[in-house]
Write a structure and sequence with these properties.
Layout (H helix, E strand, L loop, with lengths): L2 H6 L16 H4 L9 E2 L2 H10 L3 E6 L4 H11 L2 H10 L1 E6 L4 H15 L6 E5 L5 E5 L13 H14 L1 H19 L12 H9 L19 H14 L2 H16 L13 E2 L7 E2 L2 E2 H17 L3 H17 L10 E2 L2 E2 L2 E2 L7 H8 L1 H10 L20 H7 L4 H19 L7 E2 L2 E2 H18 L2 H17 L7 E5 L2 E5 L2 H18 L3 H17 L32 H16 L2 H13 L1 H6 L5 H12 L2 E6 L5 H11 L6 E6 L25 E6 L2 E2 L6 H9 L1
Parallel strand pairs: 1-3, 2-3, 16-17
Antiparallel strand pairs: 2-4, 4-5, 6-7, 8-9, 9-12, 10-11, 13-14, 14-15, 16-18, 18-19
Length: 697
Amino acid sequence: MSQHHEHSARTVPRKANRLINEQSPYLRQHAHNPVDWYPWGAEALARAKAEGKPILLSIGYSACHWCHVMERESFENEAIARLMNENFVSIKVDREERPDLDQIYMDAVQMITGRGGWPLTMFLTPDAKPFFGGTYWPPEDRQGMPGFPKVLAAVANAYRTGAHEVSHNVEKLSAALGALSDYAPPNGEMRRDQAVVAARALAGAYDSVNGGIGGAPKFPNTFVFSLFLRVFYGAGDEAMGDIVRHTLKKMARGGIYDQVGGGFHRYSVDERWLVPHFEKMLYDNAQLAVLYADAGRALNEPEFLDISRDILAYVLREMTSPEGGFYSSQDADSEGVEGKFFVWKPEQIERVLGVDLAELAERFYDLSFEGNFEGANIPHRTLEIADAARMFHKSETEIESDLRAIREKLFAARETRVHPGRDEKILTAWNAMMISALATGFRALHEPRFLDAARRAAEFVMEKMWDGRALKRSYKDGTARFNAYLEDYALLAGAMIDLYEASLDAGYLDHARKLAAIILERFLDRANGGFYFTSDDHETLITRSKAAFDGSTPSGNSAAAMTLLRLFDYTGEDRYRIEAERVLRLFREFIEKQPFGFSHMLEAVDLYHRGATEVVIVGEKTSPEFREWIERLGLLYVPNLAIFAADPSGVTPPGFLPEQVRGKNQVNAMVTAYVCRDHACTSPITEFKALENELLG
């Protein structure tokens, strides 16, 4: 929500509370609430203990629509703020800065209510232990929900008079939270076909009409479709390929995709991908850019490659800081209205395009006087190019040219509107995902701007957010803050491997190894296996959680397992494989019971069982022939690929080549490739087509 809207109703500016000194745009949005907000920290916790008051913990994030609604309805309300200030010490947290707190208290609210979401509203004892909570509460009783004032009064009264019940709740929740991270690996072996079995089980929830998984609201569920692609490749399962193709086409034609400016919105409120929640998150776009690039290559769908290119172009244009890092999100609202920036009325279309182009735009993007969203239109594709060509008596080339002109004109007109707010925090884990996406995009699309941007972002993170010993989580306004979490280290190490594969610059593998060493040293549960959310030198919280479930981003444990397995393939160092295997064994029963919550970890399971496909290419790295082979290799979808560039002199860089790829020779001074699987390599290959056949079967 824009600052303009939030403050427009105020006649007299209020004195700012403590949040005015925070970096987070989300916290600063609450700096003029009448609530006596604290950021999480020693001051707030000490006051709660000194006064014997419970803590009201409110967790959200900048692009969260209902967080803004609750602020407007309750935290801006003088009477409600008075109730909060008299009875509680109120703490506001940005979940993107402090996912460690979010993880713990979201687990708690799910135990209490059976569901979660943001805004997260949790009530804690003065020593930060949860005893009651929920998500959004309206300002008065509504649709069976108690109003927030009623909740505040009841909780305050219960805390004062019901000490036994509060204590019972605290004990029960504390024990349950502890159990989430303190369990031993189950007996029994992992199934070799676990990834395939899980993928086929997940396919049972596929919507064969609209694509995607399940009904409304509908999320992209990127990892599920990435897993399906792996099974399509590894098991030759054409049905999996068809599911991915259908889903990605439906999404790319829907309103969830910004047809004018590129990039995906967060999710669709309907089952047809038509009406989105309009915020755009960096991590969604990073992951979808990879999925569309992979599917474009695997399924021979040039349209998917175009979508991947447009996502990356959108991020470079609108989500990149002058220093080279990537911003976190764009809001759903502009001028206080959800989606206003993105929707169109026919008269606006005709004014911008003129009559002829407007007619094509209205048919192609289904723009009508009735509209499809609150009297306006979310552009979405309803025609194929060939259908439009027949309808308008033009060639497909002419239609494509007209559509380019339509998009350019609409984009230029839209740029004059008030833009949605942007959260300009730079987060390590999300930047890592974007670096990976750009590296993948460079390999699939051969556009140097993508590799340049990936390198620049990696340099930014290693200069501004890494001090040689540890990473920071968040950067804004020249300052890096907060200890980084497992996901930051694991995803950044994975991004460095992706950058190596795009550039063949071995320095990136060195970065990956440094980050992996910290994961093994400071995050490892040596007794049971797996990795903690926080490092061993992190602030002490009520529990040290282990993140295992893959949500809209990979869990720290699945990202760590994948990265460690990939590093093992490049280095041959057993400690990487051993600890990755312990992760997969630890969560084996969970994975079998709930594959949907472990879809990225199942990709690591696939790599573990199938093993890497190692391609050694011997030749002069600067020669046109060598570059051509590397470029053509990038056009192929080969999951679990490890790429090695070997010097024709037989000299290999020390320290990170496993034994099976050493000593490979060039044949007749030609670029020569070897494909190695399970410690056995093919004979030398000197024609790229033969290499392609070997890799794609």
